[in-house]
């Protein structure tokens, strides 16, 4: 559907593969649009019962392609459209995560039901480091799932969480050897497909709870994000990133 995104079907499971390993699977606006369209199609089709997300190569997703993101407003809007789509998606989502999951590479996982991680998986949400704020309702969901202290280490300090810690915290379903990761995720998606579909979807809705609360937090994060990305802090952080130097932030 798009350069960098490969879509396939496997016995009722729609597989979305982030396929841009030369850029560590960083997402462009076109890639966001392709995933959003795939989710919309899967939502409408009765023969699709679940979605599987994975990345090709040694990295699950390095987050936004910052050059693409900074080239115009379309990058941010495509990202927000994707976030709203995955948060509102009503069928089970399984994720297979290897290597780095940065920014949206981590926050999208809060909306997945089964997350299987390779031992080398590392989850990072470095939004504050870039002078911006979290998205995908992660400011709500990270403290709820991880506890405030662990969420603060990730969201305020930008510290990574490794696969073992994520497993202990309940963020991932299980840690699986890298060579078996994708097959394991596919097998679990196949188990979902064998369940009574209406009972499965109803149970998922009950587990997800108040969807409006998540939707409102996504909107609030987007409002603050749009302000923050125009700030002197964000401009300095992005400039330092592209210039490969430490940022200098001034107080007062």
UniProtKB/TrEMBL annotation:
<keyword id="KW-0576">Peroxisome</keyword>
<comment type="similarity">
    <text>Belongs to the enoyl-CoA hydratase/isomerase family.</text>
</comment>
<dbReference type="InterPro" id="IPR029045">
    <property type="entry name" value="ClpP/crotonase-like_dom_sf"/>
</dbReference>
<dbReference type="Pfam" id="PF00378">
    <property type="entry name" value="ECH_1"/>
</dbReference>
<dbReference type="InterPro" id="IPR051053">
    <property type="entry name" value="ECH/Chromodomain_protein"/>
</dbReference>
<dbReference type="GO" id="GO:0004165">
    <property type="term" value="F:delta(3)-delta(2)-enoyl-CoA isomerase activity"/>
</dbReference>
<keyword id="KW-0413">Isomerase</keyword>
<dbReference type="InterPro" id="IPR014748">
    <property type="entry name" value="Enoyl-CoA_hydra_C"/>
</dbReference>
<protein>
    <submittedName>
        <fullName>Enoyl-CoA hydratase</fullName>
    </submittedName>
</protein>
<dbReference type="InterPro" id="IPR001753">
    <property type="entry name" value="Enoyl-CoA_hydra/iso"/>
</dbReference>
